Amino acid sequence: MNRDEQLFDYLLRIADSDLVLAQRLGEWVGHGPVLEEDIALTNVGLDLLGQARLWYAYAGEVETRFAARGRCEDELALLRDASEFRNLLLVERPNGNYADTIARQFYFDVWHRLFLFQLSRSGDARVGEIAAKALKEVRYHVERSADWVIRLGDGTDESHAKMQAAVDELWMYTGEMFESDATDQALTIAGIGCDASALAHPWREQLSSILSEATLTLPTGAWMQSGGKRGVHTEQLGHLLAEMQWLQRAYPGAQW
Amino acid sequence: MAATRLSGGAMVIAAQPRQVQNAIDSIWTTLAAIPDPEIPVISIVELGIVRDIEFDNGEVVVTVTPTYSGCPATEVIAAEIERALVACGLERFRVQIRLHPAWTTDWIAPAARERLRAFGIAPPGERAPQQTVDVSRLRRSSIATIACPRCGSSRTRELSRFGSTPCKAQYRCEDCLEPFDYFKPH
Ligand SMILES: [Zn+2]
Predict the structure, then answer these.
(1) How many angstroms is it from B159 CA to the middle of ligand 1?
(2) In a domain, A237, yes or no
(3) How many domains does chain A have?
């Protein structure tokens, strides 16, 4: 892969994670435990969807540098199959109960903010400005996730047990966020991307401070799932895409 | 020499600096009459999202910086601007999106803040926090006191960080007991 192909792939990884998580959060619409939470989840999902659009739009422009044409954001989001998606496995995990949704969001948000902060200083001006904009929004996401982890962890016996089970269950999907493959390394050296492995330490520090305030135990398992960045996904992503993409698949080019 | 038709049918010759400036001023005035689609008591100019108006080879270029990435109003606003420019008789124009520097509530005009309050929305503080600097902290160090836009009481409580639109949070006043929206500093 040349530099532009690597950048395209890198942008898809970011956009796909945002989009898939936005779709998961959208599944909560009308099912939130209270009205305020229904609205909050939708707002976070909307932010992520908006960010995904900015990344896809740029990816499409980068694609024109090495392909016959660049795909538009709708084509990238709605006409690729699961094996072409580059999102983290974490974000495709099903919503589960509310603690599961909060644990997934918390793991992602803490990482997302650290990641965007690094990207906001990217040598690629466009990457930098999208990241800087997204970073302002993600601040609210991470504050809310952390508040909920504490509220449920340091809550009743039942909420504590569910929150602990959720952070334990999803733990094996967190390793992927800090994996650095050839694309990550090439773009880090070029001053465009960020060193994924360098985020592991601050992520863990912030995590453990919130988990301890929540009276929860930081999971210790060393075995981690991997594959999202290479397009190797769990079957859950296929179900999610089937629902998200069916309209464009059934009626190609349909518009509102 | 680029010529552009403005409201009233006057032809403005865009090569003359003063006339260009007059034309630009006139467009600012036109756009200042477009209400924000979600908070109609303030205009899109007062909201601070119209960043620049300039002539580029006789073409009017309006630069807009969206509030939040996912704000559904962004496309409506761009369409409203185009409609207003057409109504002015302009034929050559484009609306471009600029992301950097990112929009901040610091750009909301002072007069608009008071109108927000009168409308029942507590306005954002004067200065938004500089959140891009310190990512080592996760949680808010302190929670600012937000005065109730109805009775002015400072005994208010946050119900949710997220409200009816991405830019607002939900609060409740402990004195008059009314819920209200708070325009989050951003
Ligand atoms: Zn009150």
Answers:
(1) 14
(2) yes
(3) 1
